[in-house]
Design goal:
This protein is mainly β. The strands form eight sheets. It has a seven-stranded antiparallel beta sheet with strand order 1-27-36-29-30-31-32. A hairpin with a 2-residue loop joins strand 30 and strand 31. It has two helices and 37 strands. The chain folds into four domains: 52 residues, no CATH class; 133 residues, Sandwich (Jelly Rolls), CATH 2.60.120; 143 residues, Galactose-binding domain-like (Jelly Rolls); 143 residues, Jelly Rolls (Sandwich), CATH 2.60.120.200. The longest helix is centred in the last third of the chain and has 7 residues.
Length: 485
């Protein structure tokens, strides 16, 4: 059986986020809680190591002390690294990640770390070694810093009923998404979008985020992506709002993750518009609202809001009537390009004279002409055979010369549609309804099966393709209706 990458050609020229369902592998660090002294750790340069209250103390014998461990990992796999920094007597400190043994290996990342904080990093191993180094800078002899609870675990995605985690797919990496309960949604296909919020996570930035009788600080809980980057917002006066001004229009959509600090209550994520009053629980949820002026409100405690504090993360404002996947920013707007997925017909048992396509998908976007799938020539619109697409709330099929239109459907539910081609016997059925047919004799010659798009970066599904089935024959009407019911 072919793998996804062997069967499907996929491109997206930028990274993209998606909700995965993950489990975590076994612990890879030796003695990360320091219950066994300094076993597994070494101090190869300008330092000595000891344990104090079951934490690792790194004491300087010169300017730049190190403590390190080479963790056994597997190249190409993704790992989550977590630890606490407990204390520091002077100077500054960093954590280095490298792909080989030795000092000052930073090819996998170098990050400043501060005392009295908990850190989470996601690392992709490029070799079978993950070298972790805790490093002091410009310390004097006798200065020290303490770390504890060091952990490295493989992040294993695609697990039914796992833990929700927002992840970042690399350039040209497909996004196989899950819902918050860990159930598979399918291959995410989206159009190009831009996040207009320049600082989507750093709500401390005073040049963009106006703090009107609120305080902001780092939240003591992990954000939806597992990092410690969420923000704790507390109301201090009557205005009580955190706002970025004059960056959107009323045709834009604003979305943000939010949760309560404890219990249940309400806040606004726009001005005092009834549609923007949302109810929070102690679980992260992503909320969205159509903008009603030029301002983006990360949170607004005024009016009917009942909460006086909350946690927030990941603000996004984009042009459109529905939100798309989160696009992180850190100082400027960022664009995520469109997803393009296709399969050359020679990779499956394609029959030129007759065949049936059955697709299961979901597409909350109600726009016109969103593609589910199509058999075409050169990945474009010419020589179409079966072109299944939405026309607002119905399914249509076009074969290059004539169109069939199926029944209506509820966009909040999955779409189940089937299209059949055969000279003199075209057919379309959706959601188990009656089969619509015509006697068109045109059967063009395609070379590509497009998934969720119209050839290039046009008419993206803006949803998920759960499955596609191809049969090299003309299925009966009864079978088509059974497959789509």
């Amino acid at each position: 059986m072919s793998t996804f990458n062997e069967l499907i050609d996929f491109t997206r020229s930028t990274t993209g986020t998606y909700l995965d369902s993950v489990v975590y592998g076994s612990e890879s660090v030796i003695n990360g809680e320091f219950n066994d002294g300094t076993t597994g750790w070494s101090a190869p340069y300008q330092s000595t190591i000891s344990t104090v209250n079951n934490a690792l103390r790194i004491t300087s014998t010169n300017d730049n002390p190190y403590a390190t461990q080479d963790v056994v990992v597997e190249a190409g796999k993704k790992y989550v690294v977590t630890f606490n920094v407990l204390a520091r007597s002077a100077g500054s400190t960093s954590v280095f990640f490298g792909s080989e043994t030795g000092l000052a290996k930073t090819d996998l990342g170098s990050h400043p770390i501060l005392p009295n904080d908990f850190y989470v990093f996601n690392v992709v191993a490029t070799t079978d070694v993950l070298n972790i180094q805790f490093v002091g800078h410009s310390l004097s002899v006798g200065n020290y810093f303490d770390v504890d609870n060091v952990s490295v675990k493989e992040v294993i995605g695609g697990q039914v009923s796992g833990t929700p985690l927002l992840r970042t797919a690399a350039i040209n990496e497909p996004r196989l998404e899950y819902d918050a309960s860990g159930q598979p949604l399918g291959l995410l296909i989206e159009e190009q979008r831009t996040n207009k919020v320049p600082y989507s996570q750093d709500f401390t930035n005073d040049n963009h985020w106006s703090k009107q009788e609120v305080t902001v600080a780092t939240a003591p809980v992990a954000a939806p992506d597992g990092t410690m980057t969420a923000t704790h917002v507390v109301k201090t006066g009557g205005s009580g709002r955190l706002v970025d001004t004059n960056i959107v229009t009323t045709s834009d959509r604003h979305s943000i993750w939010a949760r309560s600090v404890s219990g249940t209550g309400t806040i606004y994520i726009a001005y005092q518009d009834a549609n923007a009053l949302i109810t929070l629980t102690e679980e992260w949820q992503r909320f969205d609202v159509q903008c009603n002026n030029t301002h983006v409100y990360a949170v607004n405690f005024r009016g009917s809001a009942t909460l006086t504090e909350c946690y927030i993360w990941g603000s996004q404002a984009e042009t459109g009537t529905f939100p798309t996947s989160y696009i992180p920013t850190s100082g400027s707007t960022v664009t995520r390009t469109a997803d393009i997925a296709s399969v050359p017909v020679e990779r499956f048992d394609y029959n030129q004279s007759k065949g049936s396509l059955v697709v299961y998908a979901n597409a909350p976007d109600g726009s016109n002409q969103n593609r589910l799938t199509q058999l075409v020539t050169n990945g474009g619109s010419s020589n179409r055979v079966v072109d299944l697409h939405r026309v607002i709330n119905s399914i249509s099929m076009y074969n290059g010369t004539s169109t069939l239109t199926g029944g209506t459907f509820d966009a909040s539910n999955d779409i189940k549609a089937a299209g059949v081609y055969k000279s003199g016997s075209y057919a379309l059925v959706s959601d188990g309804g009656s089969t619509v047919t015509n006697s068109d004799t045109t059967v063009n010659t395609p070379d590509t099966l497009m998934l969720g798009a119209n050839g290039s970066s046009a008419r993206q599904l803006n949803g998920h393709i759960k499955s596609i089935q191809y049969y090299p024959k003309r299925l009966s009407n009864e079978k088509l209706e059974a497959l789509t019911s």
